[in-house]
Amino acid sequence: MRNSAWRIALPLAALVVALGACGPGSSSSQQAAGGGEDGIKVGILHSLSGTMAISEVTVKDAELLAIEEINAAGGVLGKKLIPVVEDGASDWPTFAEKATKLIAQDKVATVFGGWTSASRKAMLPVFERRKALLWYPVQYEGLESSPYIFYTGATTNQQIVPGLEYLKEQGKKKLFLVGSDYVFPRTANKVIKAYAAANGMEVIGEEYTPLGHTEYSTLVNKVVQAKPDAVFNTLNGDSNVAFFKQLKSAGVTAEDMPTMSVSVAEEEVKGIGVDNIAGHLVAWNYYQTTDTPANTKFVQAFKAKYGADKVTSDPMEAGYNAVYLWAEAVKKAGTVEVEAVKKAAGGIALERPEGLVTIDGENQHMYKTARIGVVQPDGLIKEVWNSGEPIKPDPYLKGYPWAAGLASG
Amino acid sequence: MEAFLNQLPIGLSIGAVLLLIALGLTFTFGQMGVINMAHGEFIMAGAYTAYLLQDWAGRQAVIVALPVAFVVAGLMGLALERAAIRHFYGRPLDTLLLTWGVSLVLQQLARDLFGAPNVQVQAPQWLQGGLGIMPYNRMFILALAVGSVVAVWAYMNRTGQGRRMQAVMQNRRLASTSGIDTGRVDMRTFFIGSGLAGIAGVALTLIGPVGPALGTYYIVDAFLVVVAGGLGQLRGAVIAAAGLGLLNSYAEFWTDASLAKVIVFAVIVAFLQFRPQGLFVVRSRALT
């Protein structure tokens, strides 16, 4: 009780440190005088802390790699790109706040960012109101097409629908749906149920758990009792680790009950433990093993920059692509001005690690090749099926009769 | 019916997890009245201890890590108590703020040291498989929880140190005038409470993710158990953990995971209306 100064100083110090921990990237942009003369500022906005950091940090790394490569090749319009990194902290209002800051204060030319649909939905009104540009690098549930967002990940008809088609081909009739309780899994499951109803499949169970949930014994018990042919898994983040560990220890193997996951990539496999997930299925557009010249280069560059034990995954590749696609659109437009870049972007086609990627000028999604993979004992994913050619993005599933009515609901 | 019966052992094993994570808090929160938000990060430290020991102990790391994690987390707790918390005794709100800050710092530290993605801790071969719906690793956790409770009970009631700890909790000034070095007792209490969190962390590597955010998933549940059980009450914590585990298990079985959380919280709030002090009450002149 003697040193009262300490008693005031310590909580203050703790608070300051705590705030510091929340926003480690708050001012990590290099000094760019005015932003216009020496370089072009671009925003990078991902969760670097909190429950989503596990996934989003790697996308940030891939985007920084792309910026570095573009700068090494002379930059864009003769100027270097200057990344301004912000932390969304796995908190959706923070994403909106930081997006506003990047646009209004840093005056960035574009923003690359987001992972969860909740964060995208939080940022969407900010970008639309301020007529700024967001590049969103993750597969999502579709049913959206903002004029100020480019979607470089898959929409439903490039990931979930091919996943279902593969299960149907394999003769899986009874599905059990497991997902985290937020917008992506709930919307994705609506699509899955509509598909199942039209294709002679049956959904015999549908369960949601809160984000960050770690207790799956009850859910596993329900799944085991229901005896589905396959589980369609839309869990996100750390929950996947608990789910697969507990599924494995309940004695469920990939042979008798495979799971099809849409949010588990190479990076997540490492954390889950290969033992627990080997043999299970995943649906994406890209794997580290995808055999293209651009991918060999990407994997090499990523490992050289971040360490030989690092893996590359679909969302990382989509983030990496986003920077290149934007840079290409800027070169074509001759300016970073948003409306001109948007106009120039339509039809741009680049050979990327996943193969040919073309921007659909109408809905601002990408033509992408769908790939189904099996998790291998070495932790990488082996492709077992692909769509043969890039699939035209169809976020509202207009081309699928069974999906009629989904867009309005 | 089979599914219904299966929920019984599942409920008990959820209870065992709750008990393990809350046991340390019955010391630091229950005995000393310190609201330690960094308790979850001591759990995390235990889990990472098991991860690091894999290089040396391979698949048996989980077993080897139990005593090591106890000491590692215990020393972290001791350092926190000596460096900061002791200056705030009797000021629960400041302590809450302080330890919340410490918890964020430790999370970020883990992220810098081990990276943001989860790491893998391989379970020993002999813990794979199970009897019916009850996996061996769940039985292991159940046994560990029972063992920890017995050890804590014996320490508190059968050793001089434990009795002195109880004396300090019940009447600090009288204990002090009787010649007990209360500062030492505080240090010891904090060491053991934090060490128990380390043990819980090792156990959790068998069933959950091992990453920087690990602690945040369990901290609220841990406080729930201690509050519902009554502060500083070992048997209260045991009964509360088992009760909450079963409630959780059946509520989720009949509804779903999100609703089960709501039900559990609602039941606890209602329960605290009737028994604000929790299941068991002991009159104490603790630090608060």
TrEMBL record, chain A:
<dbReference type="Pfam" id="PF13433">
    <property type="entry name" value="Peripla_BP_5"/>
</dbReference>
<keyword id="KW-0732">Signal</keyword>
<protein>
    <submittedName>
        <fullName>Urea transport system substrate-binding protein</fullName>
    </submittedName>
</protein>
<feature type="signal peptide">
    <location>
        <begin position="1"/>
        <end position="32"/>
    </location>
</feature>
<dbReference type="InterPro" id="IPR017777">
    <property type="entry name" value="ABC_urea-bd_UrtA"/>
</dbReference>
<dbReference type="GO" id="GO:0006865">
    <property type="term" value="P:amino acid transport"/>
</dbReference>
<dbReference type="InterPro" id="IPR028082">
    <property type="entry name" value="Peripla_BP_I"/>
</dbReference>
<dbReference type="InterPro" id="IPR000709">
    <property type="entry name" value="Leu_Ile_Val-bd"/>
</dbReference>
UniProtKB/TrEMBL annotation, chain B:
<feature type="transmembrane region" description="Helical">
    <location>
        <begin position="222"/>
        <end position="247"/>
    </location>
</feature>
<dbReference type="GO" id="GO:0005886">
    <property type="term" value="C:plasma membrane"/>
</dbReference>
<comment type="similarity">
    <text>Belongs to the binding-protein-dependent transport system permease family. LivHM subfamily.</text>
</comment>
<feature type="transmembrane region" description="Helical">
    <location>
        <begin position="60"/>
        <end position="80"/>
    </location>
</feature>
<dbReference type="GO" id="GO:0022857">
    <property type="term" value="F:transmembrane transporter activity"/>
</dbReference>
<feature type="transmembrane region" description="Helical">
    <location>
        <begin position="136"/>
        <end position="156"/>
    </location>
</feature>
<keyword id="KW-0472">Membrane</keyword>
<protein>
    <submittedName>
        <fullName>Urea transport system permease protein</fullName>
    </submittedName>
</protein>
<feature type="transmembrane region" description="Helical">
    <location>
        <begin position="259"/>
        <end position="275"/>
    </location>
</feature>
<feature type="transmembrane region" description="Helical">
    <location>
        <begin position="6"/>
        <end position="27"/>
    </location>
</feature>
<dbReference type="InterPro" id="IPR052157">
    <property type="entry name" value="BCAA_transport_permease"/>
</dbReference>
<feature type="transmembrane region" description="Helical">
    <location>
        <begin position="190"/>
        <end position="210"/>
    </location>
</feature>
<keyword id="KW-0813">Transport</keyword>
<feature type="transmembrane region" description="Helical">
    <location>
        <begin position="92"/>
        <end position="110"/>
    </location>
</feature>
<dbReference type="GO" id="GO:0006865">
    <property type="term" value="P:amino acid transport"/>
</dbReference>
<keyword id="KW-1003">Cell membrane</keyword>
<keyword id="KW-1133">Transmembrane helix</keyword>
<keyword id="KW-0029">Amino-acid transport</keyword>
<dbReference type="InterPro" id="IPR017779">
    <property type="entry name" value="ABC_UrtB_bac"/>
</dbReference>
<dbReference type="Pfam" id="PF02653">
    <property type="entry name" value="BPD_transp_2"/>
</dbReference>
<dbReference type="InterPro" id="IPR001851">
    <property type="entry name" value="ABC_transp_permease"/>
</dbReference>
<keyword id="KW-0812">Transmembrane</keyword>
